[in-house]
Amino acid sequence: MKTSPRNIGAKMIEAFRAWQLERRYTKEEILELYLTLAPYGGNLEGVRAATWAYFGREPDNLSPDQIAMLIALPQSPEARRPDLRPQAAIVARERVLMRLADQGLFQKDLAAESADYPAPKRGSFPTVAWHASEEALRRAGDPDNIRTTLDLALQKEVEQLAKRAAGTSRDGVQVAIMVVDIATREVRVAAGSANRGAAGGWIDLTNR
Predict the structure, then answer these.
(1) How many angstroms separate the CA atoms of 7 and 202, rounded?
(2) Does domain 8-114 have CATH number 3.20.20.70?
(3) In whole angstroms, what separates CA 4 from the centre of its chain?
(4) Which of 1, 67, 72, 151 could form a cystine bridge with 92, CB 3.0-4.6 A?
(5) So where are the chain's domains?
(6) What whole-number distance in Å separates Cα of residue 5 and Cα of residue 7?
(7) Which residues of the chain register pLDDT less than 50?
(8) Rounded distance between C-alpha atoms, residue 52 and residue 122, angstroms
């Protein structure tokens, strides 16, 4: 998602693009596009990617300060990057928290307390089968005992194959590969994208 200079010309272009989107998509589809493509600084695009990068969890399990941070960042993703400019991120988060509290979405004392939390640091992600790992964790009844049918060695090999295939393609291309055992119908490989660091990398294309 590209950012534009804040001038009258840019605002007119944004208004025209908004009109085009509203003619083509429903409000729910527009919201889904925004949540998928919103910029969060660096190579992060989309709420889910940012949530995992900064908080290590799914978007539906966030605290008020985390929600406020995710709302504040897309407005100026580079200027407010928590890992590079923590103070700017904290100020922006506090502003959003107070506004949400004024609208009755959070209690004011909770918002005031959350405003004092430090800016999050960018964490690491699963290195193998990250999409499948998240899905297995989400579906697990017992998070301490998760079993899958994935073949680890084959998964690693296929992920490298997907990266090579995406690397030889034009910019912006992602590659997804799923391998299923025909006899048992068990999924042996689930590579949802070739590179999570590239645009769209956090979208699991095996579920599309």
Answers:
(1) 32
(2) no
(3) 21
(4) 72
(5) 8-114, 130-207
(6) 6
(7) none
(8) 9
